[in-house]
Amino acid sequence: MVFTVAIDGPAAAGKGTIARAVAEHFGFAHLDTGLLYRAVGALTLDGADPVAAARALDPIALEDGRLRTAEVAQAASRVAVIAEVRAALLDFQRAFARRSGGAVLDGRDICTVIYPDAEAQLFVTASAEVRAERRWKELREKGDDRSLAEVLEDVRARDARDSEREAAPMRPADGALLLDTSEMSIEEAVDAAIAHVEAKGGIPRA
Predict the structure, then answer these.
(1) Which of 6, 28, 95, 139 is deepest in the core (most CB within 10 A)?
(2) What percent of the chain has pLDDT over 90?
């Protein structure tokens, strides 16, 4: 079975959690495409050229323990605006999207650029304030003492970079389900996503 679920949206909207749950429900493989950019971003923090790092990216780089840190997230956002970096990572993502057995990809431009022909498409979002509070709580649990105001500023700056970049700006695709999780529980959001995928022909894992 070849079936692709494409999920886009801004940082901390819940798309990663939803993507993993959808993949588990249907028995599909899952790719957090943001990890590719985080891996390149982490390498640039070590002094690597972003384009060279993207072209030579080793899958083992996706296991770097730093990839979930705020510093690497910002580095990823910076390298993601570079057209040559995006082009270098394109083939990997498209091949994953059409793998046998079904695939779920989440990122910023899956529906609009990576695989516009995905059978099921979603744009998961939430208000900047809600997303900043979610991220702030995550960071506090990791010992990060930045204020909520600082995190909100980071979220808005990242949104601007992602939506205003020339290469594959983040935007909802025509026909994608718009899922605003601002006032939804995780369970409600996951249920809505699963219902959408089933309506598009996705078959749950037996």
Answers:
(1) 6
(2) 79
Hey, what are 193's tokens?
A: 């996503």
Query: What pLDDT does residue 183 have?
Result: 95
CA distance 85 to 178: 28
SS3 string, 70-136, reads HHHHHHHHHHCCCHHHHHHHHHHHHHHHCCCCCEEEEECCHHHHHCCCCCEEEEEECCHHHHHHHHH
- Please check whether residue 4 is in contact with residue 118, taking contact to mean a CB–CB distance below 8 angstroms: yes
Tokens representing 88 are 């270098």
- pLDDT over 80 at 206, yes or no: no
Describe the crossing of helices 128-141 and 148-164 by its angle, rounded to 10 degrees.
Answer: 120
Coil, helix or strand at residue 41: helix
Q: Quick one: CA dihedral 125, 168, 99, 42, positive or negative?
A: negative
| Residue 37 DSSP symbol | H
The H or E element spanning position 155 is: helix 148-164
Its pTM stands at 0.85
